[in-house]
Amino acid sequence: MRLVFEILLVIVIDAQNLEKSRSVWVEQGLVRGKIYKLGEQQVQIFRGIPYAEPPLGDLRFKLPIRKQRWEKEYAAVDYGPPCVQFMDFHKNDRYSGPNMPNESEDCLYLNIFSPYDSEDESKLYPIIVWVHGGSFLAGSADTGIDMEAVAKNLVFKGITLVTINYRLGPFGFMSIDYGDHVEGNFGIYDQKLALEWIQRNIKQFNGDPSSVSVMGESAGAAAISVLGLSPLTRGLVHQVIALSGSSTAGWAIHRHGMNAWDMNNIADFIRCNKIIPEQDLKAVLNREASNKKAKTTEHCNLQMNVPECLINGGKMNAKDMLECFRKEINFSEPLFRHALSAELGVSKMVVDGQLIPSSGFELVSDYAHLPLLTGVASREWAHKRPEFYEFWRYENMSRSKAEEAVKKLVYNSYASRLPAKVPNATLNLISNATFLRYMQDVDFNFDMPGVVARLQDLEADIEFVAPCQSEVDGYVKNGLDVFAYSFDYIPKGNIVEVDKRFYELFGDNQVTVTKKDASTDGYELTAFHGLDHAFIFSNGYSSNFQIKPFTKQDRAMSKVLTTMIANFAKTGDPSIEVFEWPSYSNSSAHYVSIGLHPKLIKGQLHFPAPEFWNHEAAMLAKYTLSESPLSDEEVSELTVEERKQLNAYRRAWWGLWVFVIAVAVIIWVAIICFVVKKGKSPTSKPYDNIVVNRE
C-alpha cells in the first residue's frame, strides 16, 4: 500500500511540474524526454536511453557494441531495467526499488538530467557522469536518485548529469584466462562505451563534451579511477571525482592467484565440484520467504538445475567453456546468485593489458594525467556491526580473540593489495605489528565496543584510507592538481536504517527492522561509508537509511558539498565562496575536513594510517617478495655424506654453546667470590660518612 502511495505521489509531482516534452536527434534516431519546471528554473530529463546493443545471445560475456539506429521516435521517459543483481542491497531502495523486479541482461541504458533554457537552447554545460557503487554486484543508475534533489543540487548549479547502468557480477566482471592473456572487465568497457556515446551525442542535451568529469562512490569510485587512468579513455574523460574508493584498493583490481570470479572457478560451483558452506547458504535462505526456500533442494548451492554443457562437457578449454556459458548459463535463480556472491565476495577488475595495463600504485603513477578530487568518510566502516567480525553477542573480550580478528583482516583485506602472494609468516608479522598499532590501549577484558571500533578503523584504513592516499601520491608525483578531503559532517537528526527480512516465526510476512542512530551525551555519530551520497542525490536518503529530520543545517551541508563538486566539475577548483581550497602537493600535504565550516588539515589523509599501510607494512611485505622463491632443486633430499656433515656441524654447534655457558658460569662464580672476599677484608671501611637527616 505504501509503495502504491509513493508511486502515485511521484505521478502527481510529475503532473504538477511537467512543462512539456522535448525531442532531439541522436545518432540512433529521434529521442523524446520531458522538461520539468521547479520554481523559476527548468530541467530536461531523458531516462532509459540505450547506448549499446543488448548484450544477449552471442554478445554475452563480450565487449559491448554500439546501439544501432531505431526507426520510430524513442520515448526516454522511464528508467531502463537494471542489470541483473547479485546481491539484494537495493531491492527496497526508495527510488530504484520499484524498478528492481525488472532486472535484465538487457540493461545498458543511461539517463540525462540537464539544464534547459528555452531562450538559449545552444548553451552547453559541464558534464558529470555518475557511476554507481555496489561491490560490482548490485545497484543501478537510479539507485538513491531523487530527481528533484538532483535538479536542485547539481543541475541548477549548471551541471549536466548522466547516470549509467553497467553489467554486474559475472556478466560484467567474470575473467577468462586464455593462458597467454586474460579477458574481462566487461562492465568497465560498458562505461567506456557510454562515455563514447556521450562524446558523440551529449551536445543535443546541452552538455559540453569537452568537459566531462567522471564521478563514482565505492566500487563506482574504483571504476572511474580506472576510466581516468586507462590509455583507452584518453579524450573521453577530463576530470576525476572519486568518493570513498580507489583503483589501488585490494578489492578493486585482482592482483595474484586465481580470481574468485574466474570462469572456471564459477563453473566449479555450478557443476557442484565446489560446495558453498552450509552457514553461508543458511544466511541467504534466512532472508527469503519459505515459498522460495522450498524450491532450492534439487541441486547443490541453491540451484534449480545444472546446465547440460557442464554435466557432459568434461574438461574444456577456455573457448569451449565460454561458449557453454554463453548458450546455457543464465544465473536466473536469485538464491544461487546471492549464495555465489556471499562465497566469492566482491567482483574485481583484472589486468588485461589494454583497458587496465597494470595495478596498484604503478597504474596510477604511470598513467595519471587529469585533475583529481578524492576523499573518504570520517570512519568508513563505522556502521559495521559486531557480527561482521564474528562477534555474535556481547561478551567479555580476550586478547587472543582480538588478535585473531586482526589477523583475519590482514589476511583477507591487506594481502589482496600486495603485488604477489607472500608467506603466512610475513602476514603474521604484519598482523602482530597491526595489533600493536591499533589495539595497544584497549581493555581486552571488558571493552568489546572498543575492539569493534578499532577493527572498523583497521578495515577502513586498509580498504579506503591508504588506497586513497596512494592514489593522491601517484597524481601528485605527476605534478597534477589534486584535492583530498575527509567527509566529517555529522547529521543533527536520527539516522534511521530500515531492513526487511523474513523470520520463521512470522512465515511469509516480511518484517521491517528499524534501527535508529543519533548523537547523545555519551555517544557521537561519525560519518560512514555512503553518507555523503545522501547530501548529493537526495534529501538525506541513501540506499536503506534516511536522516530524520533532514534539518535546515543538513540542507546547508548539502549545499556546501554539492557546490564544491559542481565548482570542481566546472573549473577544476572545488573552492567555494567562504573557503579557498588549495591543491595538495609534496611540499604542502593537506586535506580538507568537509563540514558546515570546512577546515584545512595538514599532513596525509587520516595520518598515520597511510604511512603504516603504504610504507611500513609494505616494507615488510616487499622484503619477503624480494627473496627469490626456492626451486625444487634447491630443496632436494640430502646425500648420506651431506647428512653426516650436517650432524657434525650440529654437534660442534651445541659443543660451542656448552663451552660458552661453562665459561660464563665460571666467570660469574669468580666475580661473586671476589665481592664476598672484599666485603670481609679488615681493610674495608663501613660507609659511616653517609648522613641521614630526619625532621
Automatic annotation (TrEMBL):
Residues 21-613 form the Carboxylesterase type B domain. InterPro entries: AB_hydrolase_fold (IPR029058), CarbesteraseB (IPR002018), Carboxylesterase_B_CS (IPR019819), Lipase_GDXG_HIS_AS (IPR002168), Neuroligin/BSAL (IPR051093). It holds the Pfam family COesterase. Residues 1-15 form the signal peptide. Keywords: Membrane, Signal, Transmembrane, Transmembrane helix. It comes from the Eukaryota. One of its GO terms (molecular function) is hydrolase activity. The keyword Transmembrane applies. The chain crosses the membrane at residues 652-676. PANTHER family: NEUROLIGIN. Belongs to the 'GDXG' lipolytic enzyme family. Belongs to the type-B carboxylesterase/lipase family. This is Carboxylesterase type B domain-containing protein. It comes from Bursaphelenchus okinawaensis.
